[in-house]
Amino acid sequence: MDSEDDLLNAHDMESGEEEDDFYSGETDDYNDSEGGEPDYGFVEEDVDDSVMIASHRSQVNYVVLKEEDIRRHQKDDIGQVSMVLSISEVEASILLLHYHWSVSKVHDEWFADEERVRKTVGILDGPDDSGEVIHFDLSTLIIFLSTYFSLEILSVACGHPFCSTCWTGRLHLNIYLLYTFPLILYTCVGYISTTINGGPGCLMLKCPEPSCPAAVGQDMFEKLASKEDKEKYYRYFIRSYVEDNRKMKWCPAPGCEHAIDFAAGTGSYDVSCLCSHSFCWNCTEEAHRPVDCETVAQWIRKNSAESENMNWILANSKPCPKCKRPIEKNHGCMHMTCTPPCKYEFCWLCLNAWTDHGERTGGFYACNKYEAGKQEGRYDEAEKRREMAKNSLERYTHYYERWASNQTSRQKAMVDLEKARSEKLEKLSDIHGTPESQLKCITEAWLQIIECRRVLKWTYAYGYYLPDHDKKQFFEYLQGEAESGLERLHKCVEKELEVFLVAEGPSDDFNHFRTKLTGLTSITKTYFENLVKALENGLADVDTQGASSKSTNTKSSKTNGGGKGKGSSKSGGSSKNLDGN
């Protein structure tokens, strides 16, 4: 393995090449968009370094939205539909809710057949007569009672009359009314309050008349709902803008209220929220580039599946010959006793009754019967099955332990980063007289470590499902180089930095340390860029090199066989290949 100085010198020779951000290969400035196109960057000025670096791992193709941003986008869409279609904002809201907040879909459907859309959505031009026969007696009674007891009559576009009590459920009727007109009790159930407390379905509420398709708009909720119900309604309303929108998703981090507006079809699916949580927009699992979502799903299922428990049982236990329950051997001798109520005593090796064993069969630590049966092949199938289970379990354990240990290291690195920001940078600045702005190499190193631990973690899931032997060798070489570079960087910023935290004053060694740390950070980044690009290309370099090798061998074979007979041509080509190998 190259020394750190050699690696740093090699890196200095390549310093003329422009370095891009994390694994992106992109240097374009996407903030200088023209023509009113959305700027797919963060809408926050003071963004944490970790968010900024993570967001530029690939082409910036998403926007992180806070609640006020979501409300503004929602209001803009409603205003646009209202203006283009010449309808009220209440009606525009109803349309957008029905068509999952797709402005283009609303426009297409409306201009294709306005009348059909109105009927489907429930935006009526005038009173609806479809329920008049069914509702006539009740309507007449409600109008009479409302007039007699001074209750307000309200209706949506269809014109079906219902008193304010029917809508809200806030009863102000005296005892005389309850006894005299019991029918009103059936109607006054608090229509709006009940539907709001029933969940987001209140956003698609229809007229209380059962046969009426008229939609209940936002204005009715604003006028009739209680303060508490209004808060619930508007929470459902704003959440629908994200949850019904194909281009948006909520950040899955616990307690986070931010949403991601994603420009589908461009760049990577990895996104970073303002809360510093990175995740895959496609599957909402934690960010896992360069491993695809299907592999991640397989790995997560495997980690939680019962199959690994069964493999462990097969590899480390044998069935009791009598009751067939799996028995784990927990002592050195071969004399086994099954648990109650079975209590069968048997030999661990040959599984026969212990009464047939003794000094003549090898005592407590051997079994001549098993050795004889093994030579005859009686235990081949069971042993083969157990050996396969053991190998499978050992292979899975190898990858899982490294996957988990990198996750643990990443979490610790995040804690160490915060500690460096809150304590160490200030202390180093005081001891060595260096402004904190010139100590960014330390935070950048920690950020690189956090990102590389994430990538390295998922490469072990990738390696577990990689079947091809030739590709596996190339993959393990790239993984090993990247991991070695990461360990050097981690050691430098974690261990070597401690010396300068207890120094008595400034020294040139600290300046050398900063230079070394910057170089190691850049080298580690390069290693991981190569690893990520190779995995995203499906390790295509192996196929390319293999095809090139075959082509070279073919040409060599033809050249060596020129001017000879058919037999000598084959012999010459074969001899050349053997010499080359």
Overview of the structural elements:
- The protein has 581 residues and is mainly α.
- Helix content is 57%, strand content 6%.
- It has 22 helices and eleven strands.
- A three-stranded antiparallel beta sheet has the order 1-5-4. A two-stranded antiparallel ribbon has the order 2-3.
- Residues 10-58, 129-151, 169-189, 546-552 and 554-581 have low confidence and may be disordered.
Briefly summarize what is shown.
Its EC number is 2.3.2.31. The protein is mainly α and 581 residues long.
Keywords for this entry:
ARIH1-like_UBL, EC 2.3.2.31, mainly alpha, extended, 57% helix, three-stranded antiparallel beta sheet, 581 residues, two-stranded antiparallel sheet
Radius of gyration: 36 Å
- Unreliable segments of 5+ consecutive residues: 10-58, 129-151, 169-189, 546-552, 554-581
Helix vs. strand class: mainly alpha
Average predicted local confidence, pLDDT: 74
Shape: extended
**Helical percentage:** 55-70%
In which order are the strands of the major sheet placed? 1-5-4
Number of helices: 22
Strand composition percent: 5-15%
* Number of E-state strands: 11
Distance between the termini: 26 Å
The quaternary organization reads as single chain
The major pleated sheet works out as: 3 strands, antiparallel
Secondary structure topology:
Layout: H1 4-13, H2 49-55, E1 62-65, H3 67-85, H4 89-98, H5 103-112, H6 114-121, H7 132-148, E2 153-154, E3 162-163, H8 164-168, H9 175-180, H10 183-187, H11 191-197, H12 218-224, H13 227-243, E4 248-250, E5 259-262, E6 270-272, E7 278-280, H14 293-304, H15 307-316, E8 317-319, E9 326-328, E10 335-337, E11 345-347, H16 368-375, H17 380-432, H18 440-464, H19 469-501, H20 508-536, H21 540-560, H22 566-580
Antiparallel strand pairs: 1-5, 2-3, 4-5, 6-7, 8-9, 10-11
